[in-house]
Structures are given as C-alpha cells and as structure tokens.
## 1
Amino acid sequence: MSTLFRNALVVAMDDTNRSRPFRSDVLVVGDRITAVAPDLPVPDGAEIIDCTHRLLMPGLVNAHVHSWEALFKGRYDNLPLELWMLLSYPILGLEPMSERLIYLRTLLVGMESLRNGATCLLDDVIESPTQSLTALEAVFRGYEDIGIRANCSGNIVNRRYIDTIPFVDEMVPAELVTEARAVAPRTTEDYVQFSKEALTRFDGRAGRLRYVIAPSGPQRCTEELFVAANELSREHDTTFHVHVLETKMQAVTGREFYGSTLVEYLDSLGVLTDRATLAHGIWLTDSDIERLGAVGASVAHNPISNLKLGSGIAPWRALLDAGVNIGLGSDGLSSNDSARMFDVVKSAALLHKVTQPDFEAWPTADEVLWAATRGGARSARLADQVGAIAPGRKADLVMLDLNALNFTPANDVARHLVYVENGDSITEVWVNGEVVVRDGRCLHIDEDAVLAEVRELGGEYLHRYAEIEQRNHALMPHFRAIYQRCCREAVGINRFSDDERAWVGVL
Ligand SMILES: [Zn+2]
C-alpha cells in the first residue's frame, strides 16, 4: 500500500534542510517514507493526496509524559513539586486504579497527543501505589488501539517517597513517618523480573510500541537497582530515562544523601551514557552540564511543567553549547495540564528569553522545532526512525492547512509553527504510514464513547480520591517546612528568575 503526497510544502527537519521549507512530493510505502523529491512517478495503485495547500512536517515527539496524571488536569495550583506530589502521587491510603480506567486514561493522553500533532511519546508509567504487569498491559493496549507510537516504562523505584526527601526524620512527626513507611518497597530482583517480563510481553508490539527502562530518580532507587536497570537498558538498547535535578530540594538532596551532585552520583555508578535522558535537568552545575555533554546524554525539557510547579528554569543555552541533546516534553497531565505539544514548543521558545539580555543566545524557532522532533527521537533511541521526513524514516506525519487562520497571512513558516500554531490547522496525522487523525478526530477509537466513560468511571474515582488527598494533607505542613529549609540552603547555583536574596529572607 502506498500514498503519494503531491506538491506539499515540506518542513522536513532532515540534516540538510532542518526547518527550512521546500516544495516536494513525499512517497510513503507501507510504514515508511521511501522518497522525497518533486514530480515523483505515481506507483501502481498509489493513493494520491493533493498537498498544494498543505504543509507536511514530521510528527512531534513528546520526550516525557506521565499518563498516571491524566485524570488530574486542572486540579491543582501553586504547589511546588514535592508538595504537589503528596496529592498527585499520594503515599497514604491509595488503592490501585482499575485496569479499565488505566486504559481509558491512556486513551486520553493518546487522543490529546495525536490531535495536537505528537505521533510519538515517552510515557514514564508511574502507577500508585504500586504497579502490576496487567496494569501496564492496559497502558500498552490503549496506545496500541489509538495508533500512536509509544515508549512506555515500568515504574522503577525502590525507595519509599518519604525516604527520598531530606530532613524527614528531624522534621516530620514519627507516627506519620512510620505510617508512610508501612509498605515495603519492592526489591531490585522484583523490578528486574518485572522489566524482563515486560520486555517479552510488550516490546515491539504493533511495530510501534517499546518497553523502556526508567529508574525514577537517583534519590528514589538504590545503587543496586540503578546498576541493574542500566544493564537492562544496555542489553535491550532502550533509553535510560531518569528524573534528575528538577527542583532545588533535589539539589540539596544530592548533597545530603551522597555528598555530591546527583549527576556526579549517577556518573560514579557508571550509568551516564548516551542512552541516558535526564528529565528536567534544571539545577545542574556547570560541571554537571559538561559531564552530560561529554557522554552525549539527553535532557527532556518540560518548560510548562517547570513553570507550573515553580521548579526553576533549565539552562537551555548552556546545555546546547555543551553538546547535550534536548528533547521537549509535556510532563504529566497534572503539572502541565495537558499533553499538547504545540503549547510546549511555544513555551520552550519563550521561557529562555527572560533569562538573559543577550538576545543572540535566545532559542531560535529552528532549534526549538529540532528539539521537538529530532531531539525527542534521539532521546527515545529512535534517532534514525522518526523525527524527520526523509527516505527510510517511519511515516509519522502531520499535515496542516496553509489556508487556515494560523497561516493567514503566511510569513516565516518555522516561526508560524513555533509561535502561531496551536494544532488548529492540523487536517491529518499519520503514524507508521496509517492515517490516525482526520479533521480533529482520532479515527481508531470512538472518542465520544471514551469521554463519556471517563466522565462516569473517572468521576467516581475522583470522588474517592478526594478523601485520599485529605488524608495526605497531614504531611503537607511538614513538607512545606522542608521545602522552605531547602530553598534557604545555598547550592552554588540559582535557577529561579529572581535574585536569591529577594526570597531567601521571606521563607
Ligand atoms: Zn516526570
């Protein structure tokens, strides 16, 4: 089966053209792009799509998302990460979500992603309070059914949340700590077995789903687990995806737990390689950044989530200058509060302009589009598979209407994609050579039925969830005090936009 996209305005994101648009035909045979050139001959039986008024670009790659949060969009505000997590990933009293709701939740993420032009995502699938293979199966089934390309992790963590926070024993009442420590974390051996089984069951499914290795964070896993996870990621050539230095508290945690930065700690375990992707990478020192560049690691940059949780501003220019690959992510649907990648693209382009007056160091539209396509692809270990319109690549394509409001009148096309486009101009989305979105609707699922079922089952779940949140509020004042203490500590760098002296005295 083949499709010829005739005379499209192509933003290929290939090595030669990057975001510079050109007119061309694009031929897709099966799941791959086989030719990109003007006036291609029509193969026998090919479907021809006239693209005279269409822009064709590679699907966006969401380098970091958590589908767990899909029911919590629009629920919280003005809480920093560690306090927000008490509500969005509660540690007291939570029951597992039903497999049906996990499946539906996954469809919400897939729907919002595809409709907004993201054809590939990395879902760090955290399941609270704990994860089973059948729960993960529901996630894979969701992405399989909706037609997106997905890289999904198991939730690799073997320290209790309470034990990942500094100063807990001196600052949280003993009875609360005891309650939070009641459930034993799983062992390294458990997680290795879980991941091996997940690789067997899920990896390669539908020709577009992968199981990937994602130890949650250096303070959230034991050394032994990190080393074992890295070995699995090497054996199966998957990304090694880990949250690192998202917040100032985590910078303090590195010093308190390991007497070093968290990047130095990871390096000492031998797990910093070109497979490593650091989610966030905000509170990095200059020498951390140098280390990441030297090994060819990636950072999944999540500007909207970082703004929402007040985590600080990642050092965009310093990372690129050091040779670190940057992908763009939405992060979870509670800290964002959506999976719309065009929002993320625009925010990434805007955020860093307030960090310094040297306007020549600000992100360009081309760099941001690169991060949103090629950067994310490389971070997911799909560098030669997706992220560009070029022969041999998977046919993951987004088609936009050049006659739409967002392109009228049309000026610099790359700048339109970064600053003007919000997904409204998308007419079709293709994944693996198959059309999955047309006229704003996902074609492989009954969207209305899914939303109706989420309203019913999700509504019931959230009703019960409110009681769990209430219970976890008991920890809030103590975590608040720890947060404030960490903010007062000097860590040698400042990633807030305000001068440290302006707020240290206030807290
Ligand atoms: Zn995350």
Note: The domain at 60-338+365-379 is CATH 3.20.20.140 (TIM Barrel).
## 2
Amino acid sequence: MGFFIFALSRLFMSAPPIQWYPGHIAKAERQLKEQLKRVDVVLEILDARIPLASHHPQIDNWIGDKPRIIVLNRMDMIPESTRQDWSKWFKLQDEQPYFTNAKQGKGIKAIKSAAQKTGVAMNQRRRDRGMRSRPVRAVVIGFPNVGKSALINRLVGKKVVVSERRAGVTRQLRWVRISDEIELLDAPGVIPWRLENQRDAVKLAICEDIGQSAYDNQIVAAAAVDLLLELGFSKALESRFQLDPTGMTGEAFIQLVSDRFYKGDKERVARQILYDFRTGNMGAIPLELPPV
Ligand SMILES: Nc1nc2c(ncn2[C@@H]2O[C@H](COP(=O)(O)OP(=O)(O)OP(=O)(O)O)[C@@H](O)[C@H]2O)c(=O)[nH]1
Ligand SMILES: [Mg+2]
C-alpha cells in the first residue's frame, strides 16, 4: 500500500491533473436537469469495475426523492465473487443493485420490471387524482461510456441509439419508447466539471470513461499497473507480457516491456496495456473492491 501511495504521489507531482469537461457535456447537463422534472424514475448506470468512482457526486442532489434503480453494468468485466461482494455492500447501504451486461443483454429483464413497478405506483397515484394512466418515464444517467446507450438498445430489443467504444458518443438527449409501459431518455454521459479526486480520475481514465484528450497514456497505463499490483492482479500482467511486474513501479514495468519487446516504444506498450485491460484481454479485473 505504501508503495502504491508513493507511486501515485510521484504521478501527481509530475503530471498535470486529469480534467475533462467538454462543451457538449456542460450543455447535456443543463438539458438533463431540465428533463428530470418530467421523469418518474432514474436508472443510475455505474461501471461495475469502479462503482464508487463512476458515481456522479451530484446525482443524489439532482434526483431528490425520485425512485432510483442502481445498475452496475459491465458485470462481465468483474469476477463473480466481486459481484457478490458488491451486492452485499450495496444491500448494507439499503440499496438494491442490479447487474447487467448490456453488450450481451444479460440482466435486462430485471431492470425492465423494476422500472415498470415504479410505473404501477405512479399510475395508481394518477388515477387517485382522476388522471389517466401513462407510460412511466425513465432516464439513464451515468458517466460517459459506461454503457447507457447499449442498455437502452437491449431494453428496446433492437439498435435504436448509437453505442460505441469511446467516451462522449451520445451528444443529445433522446426519448425512446421501450414498450407501452416505459419511455426511456437516453442522455449523454455526465461528469463533474472538476474531478476533485484524482485517484478516481485515474480509474475513470483507465476504464475509458473519460475522453482520451484528458490524459497521457503512459502515465495512466503506469498507474494501471500500480493499481493492478496493489489489488493482487500481477499474474494477469505477467501472463500477458511474459514478465513478472512484482516489486516494480508501473513506470519501470512499461520501460522493461518496451525494451524487451517493443524496441523502446513506451507509448505502444502503454496503449497495449490499456487496450488489453479495456477489452478484457487480461481477464475480468475490478479496479475497486467494496470498502470494508
Ligand atoms: N464488455 C461489456 N461492454 C459493454 C457493456 N455495455 C456496453 N459495453 C460497450 O461499451 C461501449 C460504450 O457503450 P455505450 O452504450 O456507447 O456507452 P454510453 O454510456 O452510452 O456512452 P456515452 O454516450 O459516450 O456517454 C460500447 O462499445 C459497448 O458495446 C457490458 O456490459 N460489457
Ligand atoms: Mg451513449
């Protein structure tokens, strides 16, 4: 742990802080807050690899007392045991987490019925006041690239919105009819205008939940190696690069791999590490475990 803090503090002394707040996100945030008035239930989409770092600190404030469904997407990217640990942890916080794999369409039915359930209660209140029933209006909120649009496509059962491996794909808010009972608003990813916690910012960069212009690949890949070592995933790196990273800093590991196999090209090694982590080539690896 001491080693890790040393490595990270070196990182932050030498590197400019990671900040990413493009214009389209500022605009989306304003529109989202406006639309939230019309919404009955919020689906908060978290990245299962980093459920804490991918929680937007202002969401609670924005949604007030509207019902919220917490979705940990990318469940295929963490081990089953970690999923269970998170499940227990969320339940201890009095929350019911839903796990999904929006890429392959797993866990989708449970989300649909949870959203529908909030609609039943909402329509009962409407009828009590002499109003007609209407579809429940839901919104997906979350950081960029966590899989909001992919989840909507799965809920509809066909490709209705664009979903791609890159942060900042959805630029505009768009209502989509899921069924006679549910309407869902696809929204661009939102992110705090300042990333106060740089340890979290690094995790967001590793998971590609912020745009590439915000960080330096070599610095983030080195931090990724440090983090994997801290969390006990040195074997994943070793089997991928045929070199044991134990006891090394991420920076030194990148240097070693590049000297051995990449003709000294550290940028290529950095990109390869990030690519392998992001595409699951290193296996299912979480970057956060539930706090004890
Ligand atoms: N492995 C895996 N990949 C996923 C999952 N969900 C989404 N993806 C992939 O992640 C990438 C981003 O998905 P999007 O649906 O565009 O994410 P988004 O949250 O809408 O992103 P923005 O519109 O940029 O905010 C796509 O390449 C998806 O195929 C998942 O559960 N598992
Ligand atoms: Mg999107």
Note: The mean pLDDT is 93.
